[in-house]
Write a structure and sequence with these properties.
Strand content: 35-45%
CATH topology: Jelly Rolls
CATH architecture: Sandwich
Number of domains: 1
Number of helices: 0
CATH class: Mainly Beta
Order of helices and strands: EEEEEEEEEE
Largest sheet: 4 strands, antiparallel
Strand order of the largest sheet: 3-8-9-10
Helix content: under 10%
Structural class: mainly beta
Shape: globular
Length: about 130
Amino acid sequence: TYRSPGITGYGTCLYLNATSSQSVTIFTPPFLNMALTSFSLFAWVKATSFHNTANGSYSDNAIFGQCQQTVQDEYLHLTVRNQYAYLGFLFDDSSGVTLLSTNTWYHVCIRWNYTKYDSILVYLDWLCLRL
């Protein structure tokens, strides 16, 4: 649902209820080749639980994703993987170093600078995690 005002009392937000397993999927948009343009993506996230694995494999908790096909630079994904912020375009992924906790608000941002190819900046609560 949309909420206005947002969580901070200003603006509007998309509010997804984890207990209802809510998400947003857009099935037929035009593909935006985000690898070929500079952009920033911001999200405020608060997880009540994480899907994790204990056997060495990974489990993703999706924040944002776009996939034209599963080839490098056409599979953008921003997730929480085993409780760490995780970003990639496929095969050039980057993981944060801060273990995320449940029931805590985090500001997550990724910034891709197309003019400096492979220049991905990942921010968590305004602190840069990866260059």
